[in-house]
Amino acid sequence: MGVEVSVENLTKSFGSQNIWRDVSLTLPAGEVSALLGPSGTGKSVFLKTLIGLLHPEQGSVIIDGTDITQCSAKELYEIRKLFGVLFQDGALFGSMSLFDNIAFPLREHTKKKENEVRDIVMEKIDLVGLTGAEDKLPGEISGGMRKRAGLARALILDPQIILCDEPDSGLDPVRTAYISQLLIDINAQIDATILIVTHNINIARTIPDNIGMLFRKELVMFGPREQLLTSEQPVVKQFLSGDRFGPIGMSEEKDEALVAQEAAMAAAGISGGGTKEDFTEIIPQVQPNPGMPERKAIARHRERVHAMLPDLPQNAQQAIRRSQEQDDRLRSHRDAAAVVMA
């Protein structure tokens, strides 16, 4: 099973520029979480802090009982073996073939024989749809293919924690759907804790168990996906809809006068763009493919959410109940499909 990641009062700055402050959240073991936020809010910085590539000014990051902000280099090296990381640009070695890029963690951290390495690598290559491209260099393939190769490398050690920095970046909508399904299938297979940083609202609506959002150097909220999707907070509603009217501006923040002006324009019927879709209408969460095991995280997530349900807003409570009913029906259909396919 994946491990819990607990973040307490985390603050990060670069020189005099504060990126975010006092961020506290817990990534529940084995669950899929997503982190949203406008560009420039430090989401990628947050991922790098979780694996110890960046050191915060204050706060703790506790992974498998170890605070990586205080541990030794040797302890950090061991903790990092729990992670599989898909960086935004794939982060492949340009002078290595895709095969060697994907095989690198196996050769670095295990004593497997080369024939074993080849079998595992080719399995992951097939999983992400890159069969036939294993001998190519990163510079010889598209950005989307590099992203999929990066995902294969992130999965190569069957990690307990998977961090994905915009996994849909550079992918068309169809391959984005395949990557999303793959992450759910991987979670079903190895019960890994997964955190996805994304701007893709469809991913946020259909993949994670939990969603958080960063804005103005703070964590706006973190909780069950239904809580954020039904939120009445203006910044959340604006981000989900993609409307230019609201607290988020081109440089992230707007002054009060501009916000008031936009509110008057909206009241006058002037469009701020964006979708008019009702995000409070919760659409079903993606389920593992037929033949895959049940996600063990579902039962744990339900038990945890049930305990916090009375403290959530009424519309979030209702959405969670509807969502659980939808998921139960979908799992029944999936089980029936698996029987037919058997």
From TrEMBL:
Residues 5-241 form the ABC transporter domain. CDD domains: ABC_Org_Solvent_Resistant. Residues 322-336 have a biased composition (Basic and acidic residues). GO terms for molecular function: ATP binding; ATP hydrolysis activity. Residues 322-342 are annotated as: Disordered. Keywords: ATP-binding, Nucleotide-binding, Transport. Pfam families: ABC_tran. This is Phospholipid/cholesterol/gamma-HCH transport system ATP-binding protein. It comes from Gordonia westfalica.
